What we know:
By secondary structure, the chain is α/β, with parallel strands linked by helices. The chain is 40% helix and 14% strand.
Amino acid sequence: MPNFEKNNRILDISGKLINEGILITVKRKNYQIKYPAIIWQQTPDQLKKILLENLTFAETHWLPLLLSKEKVFYNTPVPLLEPFLFKNQLYDLLYCETVDKVSQLSYLKKFYNLEFIFSREEATLPNLSLTYENSNTAVIPFTFGKESLATLALCLELGIKSILVYCQEPAHPYEERYKLHELKRIEKKYKIKTYFIRHDPGLFRYGKAFNLEKETDIGWGTQITLLAILSLPFVYYHKARYILFGNEYSNNEMTKKNGWKIFSSIDQTGNIVPQQSSLIRLLTSGQCEVKSSLDPLEEFNIFYLLHHRYPELGRYQFSCSAEKPLKGGRQWCHDCYKCARMYLFAKALGFSVADLGFKKDLLADLRWWNHYFGKEIKTGPVSELDFAFYLLYLKGDKSVCVKKFRKDKLPRLKNWSWHFKNYTTIKPTINLPEKYNMKMIEIFQDEMKNFKKLISQYGK
């Protein structure tokens, strides 16, 4: 393979198959994707080649933006999924520009103008035989967030066999030890199979692998698509019918800036999920689909569903950024926006913050809320925070943050009747698994009645 490293404009990237997965080399450093041995051994050779070609590109095609390169040379052929992966990343860059506080279209222009140079080999095409009947197995890319826990809970209630796959995110350095321990507890308690993927390319996120002076949001916007592709060896091994994500309805929210549409979670939108499903169906002889188990629910409703209907699983919730040490051996650092967000949800709904593992009052100090009261930009709809603070205000909470909400936010919000209706309404759905659609809707309706009863005592 030609060596282009001496040319400062060109980034040299290579990928190769190894005994338990894939090795990706960037700037002469190796990054491994390592599967459990039994899973990788049973993965068809043709699928391994497809994964090599597509994952090498999917994990790295946005790196030139981080490293100020104009061209990328790959030792792999043009990947089959390249058009979709490029499109996915393109749509995410407008949001990255907002988060990174750079001029609009600057990332977009650089990415559009990139030149990708591939080897002259032909891309590996799927010609795999995968047939099974009456499978009710689902692979769940498992993060311990409220969405993946609620998805597992639904599967347990509906009799869907669950395979949990936790993919390492080393950019969040303090989560792995805790999650691996809890994963084994869940496996033993619920008698389900759980797995771990070592994922060194996760160090590309925030530019951690390259010691960038300034962190960037580039790369996170293709995470769900990437997890779907990474799940394929488990799909084949367990003959799974579904890959299930827990994308909430608010992921579809879109804003406009200077006439450009901006999606904060492009690869979790309702329109992208069917495209992800088409990719997986293509690579599984039509046997496996990507679906969203929580498609018609807002984030706040999912939090309520998990902790009201499935409190035993709710205690496992880990929704911390985990970029700082965890406190007291529990799953929260108490010093990030995600911790603050989940603490607020729990307080607004009356759940015990102590039972969820919180050790601090995160409504007692405004420094944890710069993403709401200040100028910091973080993922997650602000409208959900508006609703939670509104509910706490109506309940008579006297915390410093609720007082700040009353003064700065409340006068500009829509009235309580609008908020009440919006968060007690099950939204339209297109991505629930067809076989379980009605049963899932029945569960959602049941919980929405309970939720509506809980908050109807407040308001005007």
